[in-house]
Amino acid sequence: MSNKFLNTSSFESSESVLPLHDSVSPALAEEKFRLLVESVRDYGIFLIDKQGFIESWNIGAQRIKGYSADEAIGKHFSIFYTSEDKIRRHPQYELEIAEKVGKYEEEGWRVRKDGTKFWSHIVITALRDKRGELVGFAKVTRDLTERKNAEEQLKLSEERARKMFESVKDYAMITLNCDGTVATWNEGARRIKGYEAKEIVGKHFSLFYPDQDIQMGKCEYELKEAIETGRLEDEGWRIRKDGTRFWASVAITAIRDNDGTVIAFSQVTRDMTDRKRADDLLKMSYSNLEKRIDERTNQLMSTNIKLQDAIQVRDEFLSIASHELRTPLTPLKLQIQRLLKNIQNKSLSNMSEKSLEKIMSSCDTSISRLSSLIDNLLDVSRINMGKLNLNVETFDLKEMALELIERHKLEISNSDTEVTIIAKDPIWGSFDRLRVEQVFTNLLTNALKYGNRKPVRIEVYEEMGWVHLSFHDRGLGIAPNDLERVFERFERLHAEDTVGGLGLGLYITRQIIEAHGGTIKADSSKEWGTVFQVKMPLNFKGQGL
Ligand code: ADP
């Protein structure tokens, strides 16, 4: 391979004068240098003459351009140029510049022997002899295709990323400078937040936060957190340009340079308002459902309690009713057995009229008691079935009251109670006589039963079209909490006392009074005793219950 190469002793370059060590002989140094140049693989180093024809060739040039030394030497160096470059006489231009200024340097596309292109960095240096005459050029070529491709690739992917970043519509993707001012803005950000890029770039990102968050220092906190942990995620209300709120899912990431210094932040925001609304609705319907289940459970529990109470009341009633019904039966049975015995012994005629009357009277009392109990039970069932019919007639209530006192004279004297009735003028009105008598009797009987032998005062008077009945005793009294309860069915406050009763009298009494369009209420105090006050319209026109 004939390879003429650079002779440093015969050429001199204005830019590159090759240094030689004093102790090395010039011939040896030249040889070493030739070997060095020839063996360099990463650089194509060759000489061209003044016209541009190749004079020498190294291994690097062969590796980069694909030509062997034999193929290259003697050819014009423009064979490495693209046809466009050749048309515009670029190779000649390079030599002209190198000749003029000593050196020409550029990066550009060159062509290998096989026609493929490579990106090269070239330096053409003008070589001159001692007299300064141009003798040729040295050309050093580097293949930078890989770097170029990597750069191209990077540029391409940056371009793609930028385009993608800008065109994404569903996400607001923005970058912030370190001070929190907006640096870049994408289509999604415009769509979600309403600002055009030119309106918002340079403004502080706190514009997107509600006042309360700003005052609490949320913006500073989020950037600080993104710096410390690399990334911050948050969900919360943000503000659009038009002032409306949207529920945002936000991720802020700190962007660092190679040294790890934070140089910016990226912020990706999604508008999650629809999801938030759906979640809230779901939560609301869940909590409504829970509330309804709770209410229903409570209802069921209270119904259950009521049911158990009712069962207990019923059982107590059955036990009281049996006891109450048995009470008058026992003396009745005894008296009848006594009579029967006398009849069997044929000694009936021996009995005095007085003792016979006593037996019959005792039987009569027992039977009256029994029928009154049974009447009460029948009344309750009538009331329950809504069949408490009233037979209204006009009569004097004062006269009725006095007559009833007379009728209960024996009972009054048996109870050892002083009963006073105040009824001044006749009180004419329309009522069901038997039912009103029942009311009067119930209240009188209670006053005697629970009056503790203390005086009882009854008052009957008329006022503005209403008749008033009041029964006042100074007996056992009623606790404030029980004043309403006494009107319920089967309620007995003094059950443990020996006083008999089914706990139905006041219930029936109230039903009768209300059927007449009236009211009854109880009042009681330790100082002045118990008062039941009845008020009914004088001329009742209704139909009963
Ligand atoms: P009862 O047949 O038990 O008398 P009532 O319905 O007439 O039934 O009365 C209900 C309960 O109210 C009584 O058991 C008694 O405890 C109480 N009560 C009624 N009247 C009086 C009163 N004048 N003083 C005190 N307690 C009374």
Account of the 3D structure:
The structure is a single chain. The chain has a five-stranded antiparallel β-sheet, with helices on both faces. The longest helix has 72 residues, at 273-344. 45% of the residues lie in helices and 23% in strands. The protein is an alpha+beta fold and 545 residues long. The protein is rod-shaped. The termini are far apart. The structure holds adenosine-5'-diphosphate. Residues 442, 446-447, 450, 473, 475-478, 486, 491-494, 501-507, 530 line the site of adenosine-5'-diphosphate.
Specify the structural class. alpha+beta
Helix content: 40-55%
The first-to-last residue Cα distance is 137 Å
List the quaternary state of the chains.
Answer: single chain
The global form is rod-shaped
- How do the strands of the widest beta sheet line up side by side? 6-5-9-8-7
Number of DSSP-assigned strands: 16
Mean pLDDT: 89
**Distinct helical segment count:** 16
Runs with pLDDT <50, length 5+?
1-20
Cα gyration radius (Å): 61 Å
Taking the sheet with the most strands, its summary is: 5 strands, antiparallel
Structure ligands: adenosine-5'-diphosphate
What is the beta-strand fraction? 15-25%
Describe how the helices and strands are arranged.
Blueprint: H1 26-39, E1 43-48, H2 59-65, H3 69-72, H4 83-87, H5 90-101, E2 103-111, E3 117-128, E4 134-143, H6 145-167, E5 171-176, E6 182-184, H7 187-193, H8 197-200, H9 211-215, H10 218-229, E7 231-239, E8 245-256, E9 262-271, H11 273-344, H12 353-384, E10 392-396, H13 397-407, H14 409-414, E11 419-422, E12 428-432, H15 433-450, E13 456-463, E14 466-473, H16 505-515, E15 519-525, E16 529-537
Parallel strand pairs: 11-13
Antiparallel strand pairs: 1-4, 2-3, 3-4, 5-6, 5-9, 7-8, 8-9, 10-12, 13-14, 14-16, 15-16
The structure holds adenosine-5'-diphosphate.
Adenosine-5'-diphosphate (ADP) binds next to α15 and α16.
